[in-house]
Amino acid sequence: MDCSFQFLKLLHIETRRRLLVLGVVAVTYLLFQWLLLPYENALRSLLPQSQVLDHVTGSSLAIHSSAKSVMVRNPLTVNSSDLIDAPRFGGVERYADNSSLGGEIVHESEPNEEEGFKEIDSVLEEKGIDNAFEHAVDGNVDKNSSSGNGVDIVASLAMVSISNEENGSNLVKADEASDDFPEPTVLSKDEVSTENTLEENTTEAAKNSEGVKTIFPSSQLILPATASFINRTNVSHLVFNASSSVGSASLESDVVTIKNGSLTMTSPGKKMMKCNMPPKSITSIHEMNLTLVRHHAKPRALRPRWSSVRDQDILAVKSQIQHPPMVKNDRELYAPLFRNVSMFKRSYELMERTLKVYIYKEGNKPIFHQPILKGLYASEGWFMKLMEGHKRFVVKDPRKAHLFYMPFSSRMLEFTLYVRNSHNRTNLRQYLKAYSETIAAKYPYWNRTGGADHFLVACHDWAPYETRHHMERCIKALCNADVTQGFKIGRDVSLPETYVRSARNPLRDLGGKPASERQVLAFYAGNMHGYLRPILLKYWKDKVPDMEIFGPMPPGVASKMNYIEHMKSSKYCICPKGYEVNSPRVVEAIFYECIPVIISDNFVPPFFEVLNWGAFSLILAEKDIPNLKDILLSIPDERYLQMQLAVKKAQKHFLWHPKPLKYDLFHMTLHSIWYNRVFQIKPK
């Protein structure tokens, strides 16, 4: 007995010793991996040129399994003179290794994928891809955000095959409002219950992605004449069969409740996609204005890790913008359109005189350097084309640059890499993460500011997700300017979503009837995307003769022209949100000189930092749809004529030109990027 006891005791001691040794070895190995792997690329950017290995060769981007970008945990201190002239990175390919790609991501705006694939069009025009997968039928300019394509458009690109069983499933919880570098918490597959419903997941995502948090009560920007209608407490219930009432709507027997200033919708016995559910919280225009003022007065950007002469250039002009000479009767600018026309004019002049942009050469077509000039996402393509060809602002030496442009197309990223029916966009985000790590390894500029002096221009609905975390410090010019999706007011730029019907003539059909000849009070036509449009049609379709509110118009040339003529003949053009907050109708209304009526909670209007949208549009709360006609009729004729004139004056700021013109859409986009950078930067 004693011998057995002694033997077991010795065995127990030996086992503990071996486990301890193995534990020390494992910890040492993991510590080594933690210290080395995430910093490999960034550390290379610290070495002199002679010590930099040419590890970035070929045309593929390295993918690290680490969920954090190279600049997240790396306290870099590098001289601005340490510019690395490593051989230029040759391009990008699709990932061949999916080991780091995991996680079933429920497509937030994808209730019906097949509808989007029916409209794939990869017509090549001139040097770029033209009319690639437009989400519109004739005059009905409607996104189906379920866009995706598993077909190769370049022979050298291999299709990515994502297996959820092999890759596992990760849920990433991120604090979108964090002022520090984002470090997501990753829950493993085993830690996440497989019985979580979609509603629970989307609710958690909404909580974690609040971009702007305020303590003010929700209220919308209103005109004095409409206050009596908008401030009315709405408590109403609406029950309808959407499939029979509005044609293409996918909701059945949905219950809509408008209570305490917000919409709620339930669908008995059916789980709803997030894009078909109203937002949990609402940030009003009033709150957005307060946020903009607060962020300009107290910038949230972190100070650079080392100083730069270019930062001093920007600081030198900041005081000139804040204290500009008074502008009176400017022939080129219509003062009511702007928050402060004097500040805008001075800032624009200083931009033309000062701003220099470096465009990264890294990245191959079609995702990089290949603009799409036609269709729903044309804004990002036109900006790319005009920016890369603009000699006035572009410099070849990055040491002379105030801003750095990453010229990728979010539309082509989705078109090229998204695997049809996969409901998984993780590889798209990993692709851009690898790209940012590449430029961080090759150049010192990203690591100096954490990307704060870098900018991107992206119009696809998925861009906020694709650029999350690893590009969180960048200035993002986004069409999907949703404060609940991480859009930062005062740093990011709301990019106008423009539907370009002709790449050769983007100004085709411009203009509309005079105000005196516009007999239709309000017009809307389009597909039933999202939860809001069925509500609009339920209240106003075929209800009153002077409000022409339709569902989708039938395809065909006649229908297309009818759609355009309706906009040209209407006083107000209704612009309700679809799956996402943005809509091309806002710019279309301006294009056809119709006053846009924006109905989209949490949407930041284009160029919000400089334009006074109250002068040429109406921004209504979603809860005010039942009062729409009363609100429009309450606006006096004199006020309507002022707004219609302002729309015509605003038109020049929302137009693309083959050769950029002063104050046009290209210059307005670049100016807002410049303007927000000026007000982000902090003195040393």
What would the keywords be for this entry?
transmembrane helix; 684 residues; 21 helices; five-stranded parallel sheet; 19 strands; alpha/beta; globular
Descriptive notes:
- The protein has 684 residues and is an alpha/beta fold.
- Among the domains are: 43 residues; 350 residues, no CATH class.
- A five-stranded parallel β-sheet has the order 10-11-12-13-14. Strands 16-15-17-18-19 form a five-stranded parallel β-sheet, with helices on both faces. It has a three-stranded antiparallel β-sheet with strand order 7-8-9, with no helix packed on it.
- A hairpin with a 2-residue loop joins strand 3 and strand 4.
- Helix 9 packs antiparallel against helix 10.
- The longest helix has 35 residues.
- About 32% of the residues have low confidence.
- It is a single-pass type II membrane protein.
- Keywords: Glycosyltransferase, Golgi apparatus, Membrane, Signal-anchor, Transferase, Transmembrane, Transmembrane helix.
- Belongs to the glycosyltransferase 47 family.
- Its EC number is 2.4.2.41.
- One of its GO terms (cellular component) is Golgi membrane.
Describe this structure in a few short sentences.
It is a single-pass type II membrane protein. This protein is α/β, with parallel strands linked by helices and 684 residues long.
